[in-house]
Amino acid sequence: MANTDNHVIIVGAGATGLLIAQGLKKAGIRATVYERYTREEYEERSGDWTVALHWSIPYIEACLPPELFAKLKSAETNRWEEHDPHVANNIPLVNGRTGEIMAKMPMPSARRVVRGKLRDLLKTEIDIQYGSTLTDIQIDHPETKNSVTALFNGGDVVAKGNMLIGADGARSPTRSFLVDQDTGKLDTAKVMILNAFPKFTREQALFIRQKSHPIALLSPHPYQKTLLFATMVDVVDPEKPETWVFQFSLSIYTDEVPPTDEKERRHLFKAYLSTYCEPYRSVSQWLVDDIKVSGDKFHYWGNITPWNNHGGKISIAGDAAHPMLPFRAQGLNNAMEDAKLYVDAIKTFVYDGKDLKSCIDDYDKSSYSRGKLDINLSVDQMHAYGDWDAVMNGPLLRGGGYGKSH
Fold first, then answer.
1. What is the pTM of this model?
2. Domain FAD-binding spans what residues (predicted)?
3. All structural domains of the chain
């Protein structure tokens, strides 16, 4: 007998939480999304960040109504054209000094999507409560109707539901209720990241574009411990190259943190790029002073451990469950699989009458095991990119590309 009087509390309005909300809505199960940022902050934070979408596309399709899935193209970095799959589905690894293509790494069904645009698509007709920071989770007696109570903003906002799923990012507050502080601590990668999202003149943009790849291009450098990641962020107007937005992300293999002064970051960024092949040598010269160069460090859950789901009432998904490094482009794809499998678990509980703990235990095992594997492989790939002698023996080339890990 179906138990349809259920409410799922979703913490986090990123792509993972929103896809869970869409899947539950499609299944006729009530859900509410709580997002810590205000609506204004949420909109401002979308930015130009892009993510790789490939083997997880069927999971997205399963969770979305057909009319919404049909709009997925609108979230891509270049929504105006269909890429040649023989080109797009093979990501080039390029000698950063000479420009020689060292290898082509298969990425099945490759797409590059803008994180903010994907998020905006997935939040269509979803109930989102903005400005709600999770501060406590209380589990009521199992026999009570609403067995999970989430407190936001110190208790100013109270949400009652039957289940709670945390899709609240790498530094997930939800995860802190499921594992102890030491266990949930993130490791810092020995890489400094410098990012720029520039536009160029028409002639410059066309020059860069003709030497680029429609999805992404990776260039380790033989004489310096750096890796350059280059991609198109947004083809705003295909007839106006001066409106195109590019991304250049430079990984510098060091324990150091990025300079706090932006002029120093820009100087460092341009100095490293100046030793690269074209078009990146020219990019280093064309990068004007009003282009922001941001700095960051990557973090990952190296000590990932199975979490306590409290009888199936609380779990985590996406970066909350398995924050990993981006060097194998698996983060979003694992998150989308999490979303689909969590929705399936809740549907099995609601409509098939299976025990909630058993349903969520199965989901957790999948999320944990996939996450652990890809966290470890992403760390291995990071080290391979930073060692010229090992670059051709990293997991991406050794394992046949960007397909789903096994």
1. 0.95
2. 7-47, 141-366
3. 7-75+113-186+301-386 (3.50.50.60)
